[in-house]
Amino acid sequence: MSRPLPLPVEPAAASTWPAPFLLYLGNAHDDLAGKTARGLAFWRPELCVGQFRDRDCKTTLGITDLDFAQARAAGANTMVVGVANAGGRMDERTIEHVVAALDAGMNVASGLHQRLDSQPRIVEAARRNGRSLFDARNPPPTPVGNGLPRAGRRLLTVGTDCSTGKMYTTLALEKEMRARGMAADFRATGQTGIFIAGHGIPIDAVVADFISGGIEWLSPARDDDGWDLIEGQGSLFHPSYAGVSIGLLHGAQPDALVLCHEPGRAHMRGLPHYAVPSLQATLEANLAAAHLTNAEARFVGIALNTARMSEQDAERACRSAEDQLGLPAQDPVRHGVSRIVDHVIACFPN
After folding, report:
1. Residues 265/304, Cβ–Cβ less than 8 Å
2. Residue 217: HSE in the Cβ half-sphere, 13 Å Cα cutoff
3. Three-state DSSP class for 104?
């Protein structure tokens, strides 16, 4: 008996995930494990009808808890699998929940590395319910990077480590620039950013030889004096993910860089045997890499993630960073990014 063809799964570069959303947290063990759902709830709250948490979930988004039938009755069209884990795979419980959401009448979108259509039970549930599956980590074909100069201005966020706030910083910069009447566009490179923007390229799912070309494709030449604001990934100092970070630097050809950091972090994420690098070392390493494709690249600000700090300590950390590097330092969530944008404008007048 011939096997049925798999359902088509939309590429991240052209997807629209029908809103509103139910945000799936499953059994996320901490806030970071639910970062995709958290990002959507923060940046697109008007599109989120509620969250689903299983019995062992250790985090919350502070929105309404709903089961699948309740979410559908409340108008949810798509359940977004909003969790992230090492390896990006679905466990048995998650597969059961995805099938239940499809049976309740919702589409399902996922940012995990393991594709939804790799699971026969999920494919069958989508087929029998006439629902669609969307995978954010389904990159479009991209060229090999060529490093040729291209018109327009680009800003890239980089970090001392993973999960230091690069996406939040990039989105905050877009919001501030647009509020000032500037042409500015967020270019998503990770699953959370793709769900927020509705398009982008999952750069960590691109074959290594095509990473820089993928960013050239994502951020082509522009002639409107506007800015492409490119979401950074990983860190040049992280042994696991530095390859993606350097590919981003070369493909972005950034004119401007913003350094993202979480003060007080004990070690590199997931690597207790690796210390977090200094701000100065991070700045120097990223400039050296960026200068390969843009000799004029420069830093314009520092974005600190001070979520675990008091207001007084956060202010002190910002002042310390400014003293060290001579650049404006702000927490994008706590303080906004107005001073960083002021510095961008001063460095790159029209």
Report:
1. no
2. 21
3. coil
**What are the structural domain ranges in the chain?**
9-135, 153-347
How many of the other CB atoms lie within 10 Å of CB of 334? Answer: 15
Fold of 9-135: Rossmann fold (3.40.50)
DSSP string, 33-79: GGHHHHHHHHH-GGGEEEEEE-TT-----SS-B--HHHHHHTT--EE
Q: Are 79 and 33 in contact (CB under 8 A)?
A: no
Q: What is the pLDDT along the chain (350 residues), one digit of tens a residue?
A: 222 323 333 334 334 689 999 999 998 888 888 889 999 999 999 999 999 999 889 999 999 999 999 999 999 999 999 998 766 788 899 999 999 999 999 999 998 888 999 999 999 999 999 999 998 888 888 889 999 999 999 999 999 999 999 999 999 999 999 999 999 999 999 999 999 998 899 998 899 999 999 999 999 999 999 999 999 999 999 999 999 999 999 999 999 999 999 999 999 988 999 999 999 999 999 999 999 999 999 999 999 999 999 999 999 999 999 999 999 999 999 999 999 999 999 999 97
Q: Report the distance separating Cα 315 and Cα 249, nearest Å.
A: 30
Residue where the block lists tokens 């629902």: 131
Which residue matches tokens 């042994």? 239
The CATH homologous superfamily to which domain 153-347 belongs is: P-loop containing nucleotide triphosphate hydrolases (3.40.50.300)
Sheet holding 107-110, edge to edge: 9-10, 133-135, 107-110, 78-81, 21-26, 48-53
Q: Which helix (H) or strand (E) holds 184?
A: strand 184-187
The answer to whether the CB of 83 falls within 8 A of the CB of 24 is yes
Q: 153-347: same fold as 9-135?
A: yes
- Quote the CA–CA distance of 195 and 35 in Å, as a whole number: 12
Residue whose token pair is 């919702």: 106
21, β-bridge pairs:
48, 78
187 contact partners, CB below 8 Å, separation of at least 6: 200, 218, 219, 228, 229, 230, 231
Residue that has been written with the tokens 């960083």 in this structure: 340
Q: Are 267 and 163 contacting, i.e. CB atoms less than 8 angstroms apart?
A: no
